[in-house]
Endonuclease/exonuclease/phosphatase (Macleaya cordata), 240 residues
Amino acid sequence: MPRDASQSLRDLNFKSGHYSNSLVSGIHAHVLTPNRRELWAEMKIISDLNKSWIAIGDFNCVLRNDEKKGGLPPRPCNNQVGGRRILCKLDRVLYNQLWLNNNGTWSYKALSRAKSDHSPIIGSTKSVPKPKNAPFRFQNMWIAHNKFLEVVSKSWTGFISGNPASRFAYKLKRLKDNLKQWNSAVFGNINTKISEMEARVKLAMNVLDEDPDDLEKLSHLLYLQREFDCIALQYDTFLN
């Protein structure tokens, strides 16, 4: 069960499964330095427990001067342009040697700032391979496409000879094949598309961060973010 150690720290203690005897701490440090000292003290106590431990979240502080650009407030990105823009590396993942020993293949990455001034962080122990013979699955995102019903109608009304039962079975098989081909041509691999677009958005963000006064670079970033939102909506529909 989650445990709120303080306003800045929430702990999850796993008793069984792959992460047995591991501790995961969610961090949201206070913006003021004096108020963060309680968090550092709590983390020191946890560190002395000698448990497999990982801490993830917004630490609201930088480790080096090069992790911050512009302004005084310690914000990850204040979503401003030009001289008012502030960039800080505040979202982190910290783990001890015991965590690494127990989860040797574990890795993480920071995603692009698509919906927030923070960078979402995701991590996992390994990737899940795609099955070689994946069964046919209807995708909800197809319904929103204006050509979907036309594809279904054209496939289903095509002439097939034989008795009613065999015609019905063949029509179903043909429809599945046609929908797979149409999905590949129109939507492509949704996982690949969202990864590629996320990489483009992240690159555009980095370029703008280096030259925050360039409005053309800002316009390009906003365009890519809108494209990313469209693909992300398709992905959400795909998952549902």
Summary: Residues 215-239 form the longest helix (25 residues). The helical segments are 33-47, 97-102, 148-156, 164-186, 190-210, 215-239.
